[in-house]
Automatic annotation (TrEMBL):
GO molecular function: kinase activity
Domain of life: Eukaryota
PANTHER family in UniProt: URIDINE KINASE
Name under which the protein is recorded: Putative nicotinamide riboside kinase rhodnius neglectus
Residue stretches spanning the membrane: none
Keyword entries, A-Z: Kinase, Transferase
Length: 184
């Protein structure tokens, strides 16, 4: 029997600071045998030649798939899916561009996009520190426009994506996702 058939794979996408990781952690509470993988763990180094510079800001564009080592992430996903699994288990893939990577989308039984308003996204982003830190204007010129483009592309390619309001109470979001998971 194909071991991957015992896995239920969900993709949690959304703009930066939309609540993806918080939601994934809460899902881990509901499904203690689940595996959680974060796309943020696959960023290339700042000096990697594959990085694309935003020339007017003198800063790398961290908001594109080209800023991520998606081949390595796919290897890690396949390693998880090949691991011994005798009963259904949940694999939670969490990332701002998870639904923009066709190889990941093809594995997902359910896809979710957490949407937040500009003001809420900016407020949450300002409350965090990044390495390297955001330069002035990066959110307005890069983060927000790239997140809107990524959302539009992912929804167009994946019309079965469930769009969730990332500003809703977390318990409500968890129950919506659990309902979908339990149907799979």
């Amino acid at each position: 029997m194909d071991q991957t058939s015992n896995w239920i794979v969900i993709g949690l996408a959304g703009a930066t600071n939309s609540g993806k990781t918080t939601l994934a952690r809460r899902l881990m509470d509901q499904f203690p045998n689940a595996v959680h993988m974060k796309q943020d763990n696959y960023f290339l180094s700042d000096d990697d030649p594959r990085q694309i510079k935003v020339e007017n800001l003198g800063h790398n564009n961290w908001e594109k798939l080209t800023a991520l080592d998606m081949d390595r992430m796919m290897e890690d996903i396949y390693a998880v899916l090949r691991s011994p699994c005798t009963s259904p288990r949940l694999l939670i893939l969490d990332g701002f561009l998870i639904l923009n990577e066709p190889r990941i989308v093809s594995l997902c039984h359910a896809k979710f996009y957490l949407d937040v308003s500009y003001d809420e996204c900016r407020r949450r982003r300002l409350g965090r520190s990044y390495d390297p830190p955001d330069v002035p204007g990066y959110f307005e010129q890069v983060v927000w426009p790239e997140s809107r483009e990524a959302k539009q592309t992912s929804i167009a390619r994946n019309p079965d994506t469930v769009i969730l309001n990332g500003e809703m109470e977390i318990d409500n979001l968890v129950s919506q996702i659990v309902d979908v998971i339990e149907k799979n």
